[in-house]
């Protein structure tokens, strides 16, 4: 059984045997060329990057560590899939964001095809690795499971931090600080052993204030200081950015007395620019100024989540790539209520994939202790389109229509879940409906804040079709009248909606949250 966590800048894969769930494995060998060899670079994750080689006879896809250093590549393409990306951008940091959908792509690629090509390449490698395990009898195939990243990270963090005085009824905040986004979720512990049982204490929140914003801000800093120098070019920018991303961004602790050096070979010594022997010196104070606006937004989100929680928060667990930065953790601790402890669980960089694997393993065998989320807090309003009698005092006359019995109706939204409601994963939310099968399709009311998630098409079983009651309308025509129900189960990252008629399941749809 394997789990994949496609990240903004890095992706991870974990797998385990159902017969030995206590021994999960990370795939940490990644190809560096186009050969069939599974070996190459050793890393807990692989870069979420894609490139195309146009050597004849055909175009080839390169991904992850296969891409040569000097080759242009596509990255951060995961962010392009979010239809509401602008709503999650912090206004004070907006100038450092790009509209991911407007970034240039090769003529043969689309916003959807790039992540698809990357995931296909990643999956091919995973299948090759697991094939060896299958042939050795060490691994089983599995179905696809979907779990939200912050929930998966929370599961790993709580399993990994049990010794840190966390007890039943404690409420903990999980901060998944990644490269693209920072996502927060709060749980109250209902049970720790042998099963982990949690309930959400606040609706999850998040924003685009991950560590990639530090890259943007440092890039702006470099351009402002050096772009007027005749020796400045894109190659020097690339080398300096790689040094920042691989070292300075991860090692800076907030100490303003630190000094960092970045390669800018070819630029002459300049005291004013702080360039000496091809190295640009950046002070700790300058680094502090680059970091602080981004860290402040993470703190703002953290305090917001603490206030939203239905119970007092005891600890904040910080995971994710950005979460490994000591300056971030210290800054959070210094700017949230003093009774909330900031903890850094082990293996925080791979918390999502480890937690996702643990959750799925717990569902795969009755011998494995279960991991249960007893209830979640709705992040949005959810509902169905429905027709109600027209009310001249409430409704727009232009949207009203006549039914077959001469009555005026109007199409509205029926909200059966409201933002902030507690939702059980095990108990479906059932709504009952009546349908006149020959009803003419009418215009649906739209609103910029409402999005259609799915359209379900279901065909009744033959024996049920013969039992459908028939009534005569005012126009003398005969119509089928169908009373049916929708059952909706809400999970971590998707919703299963099914149609029921006469107590029998007649069709379903799965809606994946974005």
UniProtKB/TrEMBL annotation:
It comes from the Eukaryota. SUPFAM superfamilies: Actin-like ATPase domain (SSF53067). InterPro entries: ATPase_NBD (IPR043129). Signal peptide: none annotated. This is Actin-like ATPase domain-containing protein. It comes from Penicillium oxalicum (strain 114-2 / CGMCC 5302) (Penicillium decumbens).
């Amino acid at each position: 059984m394997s789990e994949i966590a496609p990240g903004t800048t890095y992706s991870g894969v974990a797998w385990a045997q159902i017969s030995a769930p206590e021994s999960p494995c990370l795939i940490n060998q990644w190809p560096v060329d186009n050969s069939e060899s599974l070996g190459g670079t050793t890393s807990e994750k692989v870069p979420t990057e894609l490139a195309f080689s146009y050597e004849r006879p055909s175009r080839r896809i390169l991904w992850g560590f296969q891409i040569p250093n000097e080759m242009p590549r596509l990255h951060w393409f995961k962010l392009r899939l979010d239809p509401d990306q602008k709503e999650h951008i912090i206004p004070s940091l907006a100038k450092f964001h790009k509209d991911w959908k407007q970034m240039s792509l090769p003529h043969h690629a689309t916003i959807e095809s790039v992540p698809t090509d990357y995931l296909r390449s990643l999956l091919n490698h995973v299948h090759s690795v697991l094939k060896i395990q299958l042939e050795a009898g060490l691994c089983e195939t599995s179905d696809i499971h979907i779990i939200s990243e912050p929930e998966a990270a929370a599961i790993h963090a709580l399993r990994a931090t049990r010794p840190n005085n966390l007890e039943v009824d404690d409420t903990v905040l999980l901060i998944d600080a990644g490269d693209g986004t920072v996502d927060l979720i709060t749980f109250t512990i209902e049970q720790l052993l042998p099963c982990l049982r949690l309930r959400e204490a606040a609706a999850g929140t998040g924003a685009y204030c991950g560590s990639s914003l530090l890259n943007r801000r440092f890039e702006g800093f470099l351009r402002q200081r050096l772009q007027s120098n005749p020796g400045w070019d894109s190659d020097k920018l690339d080398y300096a950015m790689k040094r920042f991303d691989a070292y300075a961004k991860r090692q800076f602790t907030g100490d303003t007395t630190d000094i960092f050096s970045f390669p800018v070979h070819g630029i002459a010594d300049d005291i004013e620019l702080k360039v000496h022997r091809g190295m640009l010196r950046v002070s700790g104070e300058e680094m502090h100024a680059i970091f602080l606006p981004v860290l402040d937004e993470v703190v703002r989100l953290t305090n917001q989540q603490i206030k939203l929680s239905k119970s007092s928060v005891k600890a904040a667990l910080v995971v994710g790539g950005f979460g490994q930065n000591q300056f971030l953790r210290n800054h959070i601790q210094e700017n949230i209520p003093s009774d909330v402890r900031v903890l850094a669980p082990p293996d925080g960089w791979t918390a999502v994939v480890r937690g996702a694997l643990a959750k799925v393993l717990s569902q795969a065998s009755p011998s494995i202790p279960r991991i249960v989320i007893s209830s979640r807090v709705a992040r949005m309003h959810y509902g169905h389109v429905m027709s109600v009698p027209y009310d001249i005092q409430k409704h727009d006359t232009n949207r009203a229509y006549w039914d077959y019995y001469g009555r005026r109706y109007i199409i509205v939204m029926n909200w059966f879940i409201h933002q902030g409601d507690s939702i059980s994963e095990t108990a479906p939310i059932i709504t009952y409906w009546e349908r006149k099968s020959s009803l003419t399709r009418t215009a649906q009311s739209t609103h910029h804040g409402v999005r259609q998630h799915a359209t379900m098409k279901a065909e009744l079983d033959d024996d049920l079709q013969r039992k459908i009651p028939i009534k005569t309308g005012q126009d003398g025509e005969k119509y089928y009248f169908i009373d049916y129900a929708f059952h909706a189960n809400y999970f971590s990252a998707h919703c299963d909606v099914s149609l029921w008629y006469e107590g029998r399941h007649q069709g379903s749809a799965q809606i994946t949250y974005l």
